[in-house]
Amino acid sequence: MTKGEHTAHRQRLKERYLREGMDSLEEHVVLELLLFFAIPRCDTNKTAHKLIDRFGSLHAVFDAPMEELIAVDGIGESSALLIKAVPDFYRRYAKSKMQNGSFVNSLEDIGKYLMPFFAGVNVEVMYLLLLDGHRRIIACEKMTAGSVNMAALSVREIVAAALKYNAVAAVVAHNHPNAVLIPSQTDIVTTEKIYRALKAVDVTLLDHMIMSDTDFVSLHQSGMMSQLQR
User: Fold this and answer.
1) Spatial distance between the Cα atoms of 162 and 78, rounded to a whole number of angstroms
2) Cα pseudo-dihedral 128, 92, 149, 214, rounded to 10
3) Which residues, 6+ apart, have CB-to-CB distance to 139 below 8 Å?
4) Residue 196: predicted pLDDT
5) Which residues have a Cβ under 8 Å from the Cβ of 53 and sit 6 or more positions away?
6) Alpha-carbon gap, residue 37 to 33, rounded angstroms
7) Measured between alpha carbons, how far is 157 from 165 in angstroms, rounded to an integer?
8) Cα separation, 116 vs 212, whole angstroms
9) DSSP-assigned beta bridge partners for residue 169
10) Of 130 and 43, which is predicted with more confidence?
């Protein structure tokens, strides 16, 4: 394409997005549109196709490591950084909508509240959600990042946070980046340690949720929490 043809093509694609929305665009076209903002003068359609061919899907492109993105012909550091930032932008946007002070009436509400905190996260992270006596959210804090095995080392921090906010109840949640939402033995042992520690300061651990960015499993609903209360 000539420079004028490139400009016209980009304008048509922008207008299509504004007219029809993102859901109307094929996965490679989503990437093509995104790359307009990092690659001002090249054919981003070809580059978008190369990304999909290399990684297999749109979400796999966003989840790919920086060094693997840069290895794709046509992708430089700025383009790779923009791609990696998209899930982080979404997560910050979603978390911004989840303001403290919201009331949660069920574990389903809590799970839905927490899911955006794990969107696009590729390492294990644990969050502590704290509630007052009216089931109103008073804080949601990241406790660990890296490996859930570290969670056992953060029990003291969890108790300190619960006392700091004068919480009555708590929920802990961590993700399995492989999206296999099956509690491990480590998850169960960690839950018991946190439950006992919070009980000692009169805070009820309502649940431990295993999260992905699209679903969650509740240890309470699976019956594991009731075993701790015996």
Assistant:
1) 41
2) 90
3) 100, 128, 129, 130, 161, 165, 167
4) 93
5) none
6) 8
7) 12
8) 9
9) 131, 204
10) 130
Q: What is the pLDDT of residues 195-222, one digit of tens each?
A: 999 999 999 999 999 988 788 999 988 8
CA end-to-end distance (rounded Å), the chain = 72
CA 227 to chain centre: 29
Place of tokens 């890296």: 146
Extract the tokens encoding 37: 């903002």
**E-assigned strand segments in 58-215:** 124-131, 137-146, 169-175, 204-211
Counting Cα atoms < 13 Å in the Cβ hemisphere of 65 gives: 4
Q: What are phi and psi of 169, to 5 degrees?
A: -145, 160
| Helices 77-97, 27-35: crossing angle, 10 deg rounding | 110
**Which candidate, 142, 141, 134, 192, places its Cα nearest to that of 168?**
134
Distance, in Å, from the CA atom of 173 to the CA atom of 182, rounded to the nearest integer, reads: 13
